[in-house]
Amino acid sequence: MYVKGLKFNLTNMFIDTKLGGMERCFLTKPKDYNMFIPNEIRDCVVFICDENKIPRATGFLVSMQGNSPSLHFIYLVTAKHNVINIADKDFFIRINGKDGKIHYLRGNSSVQWIYHPEHANNPADVAVIPFPFDENKFLSKTIPSEMFLKQKLIDDGTIGIGNNVFITGLFTHLSGKQRNMPIIRVGNIAMLPDEKVSTKMFGDIDSYLIEARSIGGVSGSPVFFVKPQETKNGGVTLGASIFYLGGLIHGHWDTLESRIDSYLPTEDVEVMRNINMGIAIVTPVNKILETLNSNELIQNRVDVEKEIEKSTLPTAD
Fold it and tell me: Which domains does the chain have, with CATH numbers?
């Protein structure tokens, strides 16, 4: 292997496979390697703000490779219900810049969000738009489609009930003043239902259930499923776990009003309403992939690649 004219033996390289099992080579061990969740996982998140630039929900960036290895299509993904809430208003996408500042990208009602195709009356809480990502300006990372969880890993029992999961997204009470500061919430897979889950906005939908508290602000957040992996001895060091994008946050259940005064003095009695049950509903990642592979976005990628191909042809003098 050659880097800038210097030869390195692969046995001296550090190979990290945390992100979807993809091998990434480093000359030295990354600083955040020993962290359970590496920093770049949080860097895929952006905040969706209202017309007053107040963060309200979460979105994240994904990428799909084109026919050329150097060509990647980047998209902003969030929950459809977040988009419905801002459909007729101005809004902003808040993203961290390499200059250490927050950048606001303005949108309005003319933005053409792409929703899940909803074929066979099978809706999903997904919304996508192509994203004008400038890697020289923005600090954010993208989740490559190679990191998307494949159904085979569930079918063969590699990923299943009890596996760790984590969410990264907006904590509305502390979003950051100088930069986006996503929060991490950790839990586990609680159920992989064999039947659809009934929801208020979308009717019966395919979903996963996770033991993690979903709150306002994390709607649309990416949910990562964790596959434990043993470290191999020898010349190549592998990451301890592999993370896959499992889906995005749809919502949660609340309990009915309840009183918690059974064992409390009278003056401490508190009436609790809308108590979060701690079970979050996840829209599966295959619904995101189906949206990215909708006819409209496929045609858009084809058109872009044709334009690039034309630009590389010789010009008549």
Answer: 43-311 (2.40.10.10)
